[in-house]
Write a structure and sequence with these properties.
The chain is an alpha/beta fold and about 210 residues long. It has 10 helices and 5 strands, in the order βαβαβαβαβαααααα.
Length: about 210
């Protein structure tokens, strides 16, 4: 039996994901969380082997969450499950410590395969992700300025049409801090307007699917 902890801030999606996993005979969902804080509060009370982690969770950026998981729970395999495109996001989270990445649109069969793979301590990469990794290696010479996890989150929020207040509330930071990150993004990416930042995110495939 593979014991799974599900962390996703959307309750309906989290419930649906847990139900899909529960339909697999050798899977057991042993815990759930809707925020990063709840994740680290509840996970120690479980014997989870695999963590299914959404990218956009209230709390610290996903990079900090993955680093803390590696430090405090090195025995738990992490599979990031998100609506973001695999070919542009998989390499990023795998570099940060996840064993795999899967888009939420995949079938239960693919999800089960991914869970079983990371539970064995092996990395999970789809054919589409492999193609994206190959393109990343090919294009490294022309890579854009590296963005921090928080900068990437703010960029994605802008592209998704969130207001400063909405983004601040979801990330648990102040609207002023969000504005500061937006200014940093504009400087790093050479953007002269929010519209240009949004276009950058769209062109890079950084919007949820």
């Amino acid at each position: 039996m593979i014991r799974i902890f599900v962390a996703d801030d959307h309750a309906m999606l989290r419930d649906a994901l847990a139900a899909r996993l529960a339909s697999v005979p050798d899977f057991a969902v042993v815990g759930e969380a809707g925020t990063v804080g709840e994740l680290f509060e509840r996970l120690p009370a479980t014997d989870a082997q695999v963590l299914l982690l959404d990218v956009r969770m209230p709390g610290p950026p996903v990079g900090e969450t993955l680093a803390r998981m590696r430090s405090e729970f090195p025995h738990v395999a992490i599979l990031v499950v998100s609506g973001f495109p695999e070919e542009t996001y998989a390499a990023r989270v795998i570099r940060m410590g996840a064993l795999g990445f899967l888009n939420k649109e995949h079938s239960i069969e693919q999800l089960a395969l991914a869970v079983r793979t990371v539970a064995r301590g092996e990395p999970f990469v789809t054919e589409q992700q492999a193609a994206g990794l190959a393109r990343t290696l090919r294009d490294q010479g022309a890579a854009p300025p590296e963005l921090s996890e928080r900068e990437l989150e703010v960029l994605q929020a802008l592209a998704a049409g969130e207001s400063l207040k909405q983004t601040a509330g979801r990330l648990d930071i102040s609207p002023k801090t969000v504005s500061t990150y937006r200014a940093r993004l504009a400087e790093k990416l050479g953007a002269k307007s929010t519209a240009e930042l949004i276009r950058y995110a769209i062109d890079r495939g950084l919007l949820p699917g």
